[in-house]
Amino acid sequence: MSNLPYSSERLYYDGKPQRSSSGKTFQTIDPSNGAVLADIATSSNADVDTAIDSAQSAFPSWAKTSPASRARILLKAALLLRERNDELAKIETQDTGKPFTETSTVDIVTGADVLEYFANLVGGGGLNGETTQLREDAWVYTKKEALGVCAGIGAWNYPIQISLWKSAPCLAAGNTMVYKPSETTPLHGLELAKIYSEAGLPPGVFNVVYGAGDVGAYLTAHPSIAKVSFTGQVSTGKKVAGSAAGNMKYVTMELGGKSPLIILPDADLENAVDGAMMANFFSTGQVCTNGTRVFVPSTMKQAFEARLLEKMQYIRPGPVMDPATNFGPLVSAVHYEKVRNYIRHGIEQDKAKLLYGGAETPCTIEPSLRSGYWVSPTVFTDCADTMKIIKEEIFGPVMCILTYDTIEEVVRRANDTELGLAAGVFTQDLNLAHKIVAQLEAGITWINTWGESPAEMSVGGWKQSGVGVENGRRGIEAWVRNKSTLVDMGGSVGTVFTKL
């Protein structure tokens, strides 16, 4: 018997946990102290096939279930998620390393919000089509129909939230899903599947498989998969999208970013500093939409940096279940080394000025946590657009400050990237803010705030940052296909093939 905190994770299909046939396992680690949480059973290709078969068998009945009936089940699942918020948040904290103060107030809550949103949307007629009268005796009507079996590939930074962002619209639209969590943070998968089943979801509608990229590649390339929804890094997303598009599968891709946060000269200094800190250090910087390129007017640079340094003391790394802790470790040993290498590169090769932090473990971390993947919140200034730390996504708590002199200049430099996920402006001149936002090449934009992504807001990247959107009314469209029908009631068929 294992003495680990969690039992060997089982894959899930036909409405119940199932044993893997691969005989292989991988480990999930508590990032705060490096301790092993569980041995996770890797799904074999045969396991994936069986999970897909289960989803295929369940699809016809689920697709024919009325939207109102589907909505009732999903609303019950949302209720169960809220009732078990703290229990699930503790699992997320142990698996991701994010402080409990964050997971208990954000991760499950925002996932349940999306589940409720799409349940209410389809229950209230959100899948209704359109009717158009062409002429007195001819009509066109449209229907939105489910796609079939869909694959969801999760990300490690917001595990349960992202699993709900994918499964909520998928299931609400009448599809079934085979979901693969990230191998770095897999513990939520079985918990969500059991909640869906308890809420009344029929067996086979939501299924879970486990493993690394090879399992995900086999799942997404499977001929029975109608759609792939992927969240992750750009390079992997391109491969997944290429494979899916080559087989005419529907895709939604939410990929990386190198987002500009523009502070205008008239911005309130306190709000600007708070916004920049939230856009760089929340979730230890492991957020795809983070505003890691902070553009500050040259005239404000000194005041901005002084206030920022005063507020850096309010970032409190420590025991992740401690109510005072608001900053956790990085998610894994591999990612820890990646982020530290970027910080070292910024210092040694880019020659940016290190204003705060660095590649070392925060000095306040207690001995029992020293085996975890802790890195100091870091601020670089006097940065240039050509630096590696400015051009590449670090995905860690690294803020880079750049200065500018004119609005035309800052807009041009903000857009000078292959990525286009998010962007934002801080100013007291809202008319000017709207004009600048209209010029920014990004799919998600904020004015005088950063990071909030409510269920009602459709989000998605431009350029290399993704394809399609999630959430909001447009979000459901990514999970349905359109059927248009023209009905002619004139009693005769117009034809050119008549006798002269």
Automatic annotation (TrEMBL):
Domain Aldehyde dehydrogenase: residue ranges: 21-484
A Pfam match: Aldedh
Top class in the EC scheme: oxidoreductase
Keyword vocabulary terms for this entry: Metal-binding, NAD, Oxidoreductase
InterPro entries in UniProt: Ald_DH/histidinol_DH (IPR016161), Ald_DH_C (IPR016163), Ald_DH_CS_CYS (IPR016160), Ald_DH_CS_GLU (IPR029510), Ald_DH_N (IPR016162), Aldehyde_DH_dom (IPR015590)
Catalysis performed (reactions): an aldehyde + NAD(+) + H2O = a carboxylate + NADH + 2 H(+)
Residues forming coiled coils: none
Active site positions, chain numbering: E254
Keyword Signal in annotation: no
Highest taxon of the lineage: Eukaryota
UniProt KW Metal-binding keyword: yes
Catalytic activity, EC: 1.2.1.3
Region (Disordered): 1-25
One MF annotation (Gene Ontology) recorded for this entry: aldehyde dehydrogenase (NAD+) activity
Family the entry assigns: Belongs to the aldehyde dehydrogenase family.
PANTHER family: ALDEHYDE DEHYDROGENASE-RELATED
Record protein name field: aldehyde dehydrogenase (NAD(+))
Species of origin: Polytolypa hystricis (strain UAMH7299)
